[in-house]
Amino acid sequence: MIGYVLFGTNNLKKSLEFYDLLLEPLNLKRGPHTERVHLYTDGNGPMFGVCTPADGKVATNGNGTMIAINVSSADKVDFMQTHAEKINATFVSDVNEEVSSGFYGVYVRDLDNNKICFYKMDM
Fold it and tell me: Domain 4-53+66-121 is in which class?
């Protein structure tokens, strides 16, 4: 099971301000942290965080690298798309519904161009 996932950033202060706003509707708050790593949590299960690279080099993002956050309802997916656009997340795609798999989600990018999916899955 995943414990936490990190995105690298070149501006920790701006990144934290962005994620404070983006994740607020999901009740994800800053939790465990160090000077260069800050994790967001709801107090249960896996955490998400942003950090400056440990090697001191420039943070970059990987093609095909993404974090997906289960928001549990189509209404919440729709809300997160609108909310992300309001706080200047870069729009990646319209809401994507793959009927055969029960997946419903939207993709956005943060200030460092990392990709985030907000989705719900019917099993």
Answer: alpha beta
